[in-house]
Amino acid sequence: MNAVATPLYPEDRTSAPKTAAADPLITCRSLNKVYKTRSGDAVDALVDLNFDIAKGEFISVVGPSGCGKSTLLKIMAGLLDYTSGDIAISGKAVTGPSPQNGLVFQQPNLLPWKTIAENVYFPVEIQQGRRAVNMTLVRELMSMVGLKGFEGKYPHELSGGMQQRAAIVRALVQDPAVLLMDEPFGALDAMTRDMMNVELLKIWSKHRKTVIFITHSIPEAVFLSDRVIAMTPRPGEIAEIIPIDLPRPRPLDVVNTPEFGAYAKRLRRLLNANEDIAG
Ligand SMILES: Nc1ncnc2c1ncn2[C@@H]1O[C@H](COP(=O)(O)OP(=O)(O)OP(=O)(O)O)[C@@H](O)[C@H]1O
Ligand SMILES: [Mg+2]
């Protein structure tokens, strides 16, 4: 599927697409999710979400705890049913898990009895057999995220940041069209997190994945994204979708520029305003 797709953006692109393409990779229309609790109550988690995402875009989703970010990601991943509306990836309605999605969660969830290398190719191995594993890609990705030489180690021999890098490699080894990430760096210390952000952008610009990245961190969202989807408190609606028009590649010290500060302030105001309404 993405092996035959024509890249939408040239390899050397330095700035992001401002809006979704006319032919978007992901379309979401009037999406609603109502959870039914055991006691029979209905919990409105997502209300009337509408957005398009172009191939190759880096999109972050920010919003207060409980606003439905993970719910949205699980729906996109085909792990959770939605109540009404439409969501499609590559023109196909999302009806269940698909190998076109790579998933990364807050915890790396590596299998402790397998080595790092075995962990990263395990999903491809069980779905398609060992021969289908692209070992060249495994080596390239491991090296890119600084895990070269750790292939034969076990997860407990690696730091939290290294384990999370392995989890990202595991998602990418499947060559997914879309990388769905739910607070992947939330458990890491600030310095490691900065480093991981830079690495993620390197991977993104090299491998041209479409990324949906959930975070609680406004600076992280601004630093990484082409556009940021800001959500209201529960029930989660889209407050605004903000294009981040900062040039790429983005060095870490872009965070010290007035333009960066203005985006962060705008998002903070937006999220606080909605918090006040909710309160
Ligand atoms: N299985 C479930 N049954 C009932 N309600 C649920 C279920 N899962 C989530 N919810 C509710 O749906 C809402 C959205 O939850 P979700 O986990 O998507 O929020 P979130 O934005 O990811 O929060 P956080 O930032 O804390 O991770 C919350 O109010 C939550 O209590
Ligand atoms: Mg969540």
Automatic annotation (TrEMBL):
It comes from the Bacteria. InterPro entries: AAA+_ATPase, ABC_transporter-like_ATP-bd, ABC_transporter-like_CS, ABC_transporter_ATP-bind, P-loop_NTPase. The keyword Cell wall biogenesis/degradation does not apply. One of its GO terms (molecular function) is ATP binding. Residues 29-258 form the ABC transporter domain. SMART domains: AAA (SM00382). Keywords: ATP-binding, Nucleotide-binding, Transport. SUPFAM superfamilies: P-loop containing nucleoside triphosphate hydrolases. It holds the Pfam family ABC_tran. Belongs to the ABC transporter superfamily. This is NitT/TauT family transport system ATP-binding protein. It comes from Pseudoroseicyclus aestuarii.
